[in-house]
Amino acid sequence: MVGAFSGREFTEKDRKFALFGLIPIHIQLLVGIILYFVSPLGLANLSGAAMADSMSRLYALEHPLINIIAVGVITVGYSRAKKLTDSRNRFRSIYMFYGVGLVLILSRIPWTAWLN
């Protein structure tokens, strides 16, 4: 956001900084997909009865689906920024798409399971 509002030029350092945000989220996606198929809270929990329970539905459906969408949004933001030519638009693409992705990820974290 600082780069977009200050009128600074988008540099290779900025691109690498955005890439260092993109790589861990993709690694987290791969780890999450593996856990989804291995964990009893994932695919094994996906049934009609589980959909009636909000926590089971969160673990089996909502959390994976929203996080996959969030990773897609972040990836689109990075790819879009690479194609743009104006520095302000490149910064804006990164902070807007990464911000939306972050909000989506934070919205589906099972906070109540961690607090108990």
From TrEMBL:
By what name is this protein known? Uncharacterized protein
The species is: Lunatimonas lonarensis
Which domain of life does the UniProt lineage start with? Bacteria
Q: Which controlled-vocabulary keywords does the entry list?
A: Membrane, Transmembrane, Transmembrane helix
Which positions, given as ranges, span the membrane? 17-38, 58-81, 93-111
